[in-house]
Structure formats: C-alpha cells, structure tokens
C-alpha cells in the first residue's frame, strides 16, 4: 500500500478524500506513514495551524441520519494518525442526473476546492475492484471506448487540480486487511449493501459470479481492458482534436467561425466523426452528451452535407440548439429543457 503512494509523496504534500470507509481510510493511513518516513529528517515542524503533509477532506452529503457524526469520526481518525482534516458539508440537489451522480458531483467539487486552496494533488481511494465494476457497467450500457476506459489513474480534476488514484492496481481486500492490521475500524456505508443500486448488484453478485465461473483473474482482466481502452480513446480524441482544427482552418472565407462545415465532418470515419461533433458541441457550451445526442448530431450533419433544407434541429444539454443552414452546423441558445434529443 505504501509503495503505491511513495512516488506521489516524494513529489510533495497531498490532499486525500476520506469517507471513513476501508479504501479511503487505508489510503490516508498509507500516505501519513509514507510522509512520516519522508520527513523524518525534516529540520523544522510545520507552523501551528498549517495543514499537515497529508490533509484529509471529509465530505458530509447530509443524506443519511447521523452523517455529521460519521464525518467527525473519520476526521478524528485522520488526525489521530498524524494528519490534519476538515469536514465540508454539501447540499445535494438532484438536477435530473440522478441522486448518485448529483452527490458525486457535489463531492468532487468540494474535494477539488480544498485541494486547489492548498495547491496539492487530490488522492482518491478507488481500487481495482471499483475499476472492474465500472467497466462492467459501461459494457452493459453499450458504451464506447471512453467509458470503457474507466477511471484514469491520473487526470485533471475539479478546479484544475491533479486527481490521482494510486490504489487502482490493488484489490479491495488489501485495503480491508490494511485497516485490520492497523487496528482501524472503517465505517460501513449502508448504501454499499443496498441492492437497489446497480453498482451494488454488480459488486455483490455479478463480479463474484464472473470470478467463480471465469477464474479469479476476471477483475484484473477487466481493469486491463480499461487500460487498453483508455490508450485507444486518448489516441482517437487527439486525432479528432486535430481534425476539428483542420476543418475550422479550412472553412470558406467569411464563414461563421463558430460554425462547422457539415461536408467535412460527414467525410470522416465514424470513430472520428462523433468525437469531432462532441468536441465542437462542448466548445459551443453543451453539457454532458449521451450516445443519443451524438447520434442525432451525426444524422443532422449527414443531412446538411447532403443538401437537405434547413429546419432540422437537435437540442443538447445546457440549453443549446444545433441546426444547419447552407451546409454548416450552427449552435445557439435554446430552451433549457434537459437536452432531450429529437
């Protein structure tokens, strides 16, 4: 566990997202132990009141009875181990994305704000099991390579902070064993045992069944699939960005600089075409796009390239409406109706 965080701590101090569960608790303990080893010859202590080398942030979603006490206990454990800690209470208001997604967005925003304030990377305790579950969920939804790529071990997080997941190569059993060895009592989130949640059913039923029937390497192989898909998705995204720049540079003189020539887009390979359309829509202010939104944009681009009369429209999240005129796609404000595709 400590080997997984050692290279990160060698670069500087960190913020850890701590829920009190076994994964984040083991991560916090490993980081504090490694920071103590790193700083054993440190000439002077930190000034009073300063954040320690490992600063834990506990987010209280206020969705369960007693959540304030649970958050306080997690923060107290981090302090007892030798770190500093803060609790951030958030308000979770479902905006239509669902309670899980809304709570996740609020949590990441709070964690990112704390890490940005301290100018440190943010570490999260996701494990190989979490990665395998994410891949299975993406497969069941018919997702593309970006979703199959699962969780990146390192990416830009909220507020531009570096978001790191150093435990993605470790099984969940390792974090539980680490907590037991250290005498730590993790909090058991009742939501993690509630079969009403799809991920819980994947965790409790589907993944164990796959490991029984296909062998104990099934989870590791799913995580490996995520690595391969991430490499492919990164390559395709880079090619699509270059194509979008090329198309914009080749637009006719006097053309709308924010528009997108449909014929140039329609000529692309489908794997690039949908990515170009997605990147262009995001640049125009669209919110999170689904496969249905991208399919509708693809049909609109094909119709515009074929010379169809203006009039077709696609509504996107963020109150954006895309239409076409004279063979060029154009995006503008529309009714903020959640972006249901036509």
UniProtKB/TrEMBL annotation:
Q: Which residues form the tRNA(Ile)-lysidine synthase substrate-binding domain?
A: 260-321
Any single biological process term in GO: tRNA modification
Q: Name one Pfam family in it.
A: ATP_bind_3
Q: Which InterPro entries match?
A: Rossmann-like_a/b/a_fold, TilS/TtcA_N, tRNA_Ile_lys_synt, tRNA_Ile_lys_synt_N, tRNA_Ile_lys_synt_subst-bd
Name the SUPFAM superfamilies for this protein. Answer: Adenine nucleotide alpha hydrolases-like, MesJ substrate recognition domain-like
Catalytic reactions of this protein: cytidine(34) in tRNA(Ile2) + L-lysine + ATP = lysidine(34) in tRNA(Ile2) + AMP + diphosphate + H(+)
HAMAP family in the cross-refs: tRNA_Ile_lys_synt (MF_01161)
Q: What does this protein do?
A: Ligates lysine onto the cytidine present at position 34 of the AUA codon-specific tRNA(Ile) that contains the anticodon CAU, in an ATP-dependent manner. Cytidine is converted to lysidine, thus changing the amino acid specificity of the tRNA from methionine to isoleucine.
Name by which UniProt lists this protein: tRNA(Ile)-lysidine synthase
Q: Which organism is it from?
A: Corynebacterium sphenisci DSM 44792
